[in-house]
Description:
The complex is a heterodimer. By secondary structure, chain A is α/β, with parallel strands linked by helices. Chain A has a domain at 1-16 and 23-88 and 208-236: Rossmann fold (3-Layer(aba) Sandwich), CATH 3.40.50. Chain A has 8 helices and 10 strands. Chain A has helices spanning 49-56, 79-86, 96-99, 106-115, 124-137, 154-167, 184-201, 212-218, and strands at 2-15, 21-34, 38-42, 64-69, 72-73, 89-92, 172-176, 204-209, 221-226, 229-234. In chain A, strands 6-7-8-3-9-10 form a 6-stranded mixed beta sheet, with helices on both faces. The longest helix of chain A is centred in the C-terminal third of the chain and has 18 residues, at 184-201. In chain B, the strands form 2 sheets. Chain B has an 8-stranded mixed beta sheet with strand order 6-7-8-3-9-10-12-11, sandwiched between helices. In chain B, helix 4 (107-119) crosses helix 5 and helix 5 packs across helix 7 (155-168). The longest helix of chain B is centred in the middle third of the chain and has 14 residues, at 123-136. Classes of the chains: A alpha/beta, B alpha/beta. The interface between A and B is medium-sized, with 24 and 24 residues.
Amino acid sequence: xxxxxxxxxxxxxSSGLVKKQYTKAVDGVSFHIDRGxxxxxxxxxxxxKTTLGRLLLRLIEPTSGRILFDGIDITRLSRCEMIQQRSxxxxxxxxxxxSLNPRMKIGESIAEPYRLGMKGGMNRDEIDDRxxxxxxxxxxxxxxxxxxxxxxxxxxxxxxxxARILAVNPEFIVADEPTASLDVSVQAQILRLIMDLRNExxxxxxxxxxxxxxxxxxxxxxxxxxxxxISHFMDPGSKNIC
Amino acid sequence: xxxxxxxxxxxxxxxxxxxxxxxxxxxxQIENRERLGLIGETGCGKTVLAMSIIRILVPSTRVHGRIxxxxxxxxxxxxxxxxxxxxxEISMILQNPxxxxxxxxxxxxxxxxxxxxxxxxxxxxxxxTAVEMLTAAMIDYPAQRANQYPHELSxxxxxxxxxxxxLASQPSFIIADEPTKGLDASxxxxxxxxxxxMTRGRSMLMITHDxxxxxxxxxxxxxxxxxxxxxxxSAETILSDPHHPYxxxxxxxxxxxxxxxxxxxxxxxxxxxxxxRFHPRCPRAMEMCRREHPQMIKLENGHLSRCFLCA
Lengths: 242, 311
């Protein structure tokens, strides 16, 4: 069953006032991701992999092409309809510190989707219980709930980001180099956690990285990107690529 | 006599929560024409160790111990004497080229400045030497690149400029701080090769958390954790036969070695664990590790390990 189906997706950036020049960040890309599958996206810096990840969540508008999410063409949705769909998809960014509000306690950040009523009405106690449950799932302690992001390490903050993502109970996650800013021993912890959560919650993922070894561990299938295009697909078990 | 002999170095600095013991009783020797890799995770004190050597720490920092370089104790030199040494004798390739390069000067002029100051060449000659340095750093169209500003160059290119600048004064000793940080896989491989080629036959301290890069370039590797050195041996030994459980865990957590994480996180440098600093995360911790602080144990072939299991 296909959850994501992308056809001829492009994103061009224009520059220059008189003579327009176009940077083809993503240039006519087509692929699909099955439900429960993790597609790895690998490529050098500047090849367009982050742009592609953001396009899938329509965090930026495509120049042309179509993105079917669970059969719905999300490129045609209105802003309001898109917001409804977007709670089914989430993104993990490279730098956890900049994806958390520095003035919100960890617990408040995780509880925010519930307070906004995104997932049905819940009273304070129910929200508190749910936050505790999520914090536990991602391997943090109850005491962390009252801390601020600057009081936690990079690895702990990335755990908070994962808890907040799980709070909205998404089906699809774009992970954009989620461990690029972390140390090796912590990177292994976070990648293992992402694998566990994916299996437990049956998540579908696009996993972006420039590290082929990481991609190999995380993906069922790998798309190799080069200068805005997907040059080929490969099996993560195969050797000697790039 | 080693080129650099660090004896019982302690670098502590005050913070609102207490003294941060970033470098705590470190002994380290680097021989002439030896390249030593210093491996460790964020916040273990490796950059502070480098900054202690060339004395670029804030004045409130307390540095104790001895850093003998060519028979001089760097810590007892006058500021003026140290300034003559810094950059000329000992140069540092700083991490993060985007932050370290001057954004409003052409890269050729920035390298020429180093050459004029340290080698006393006139501007014209310094400028042409700078282009030669860029050529040596394998930059295409070096003469044109020399006329560009840092923002016009890619990350890998800026790192090459940093390396060219670090070597422009023809130093006897080079400190490279995380030269491959933030580069993508293929650029990283190129930079590692470049550093390896350009520092062959020279003396270097390379700070990194990239064990593969250190293994490729360095003769010896020291593993640092929570302000201490836990293991030190030849690069081959560290990679193939590490004795300390932290080194073993570090290697096992690499994606290419199975992605097996070390549980827990690095300890605070303000109040590091009693006994062995790694014991709270160590899979083989014993009762003794909680109580006693292990000393460096000498194994064969200059292999050192700070672990009771090696005794």
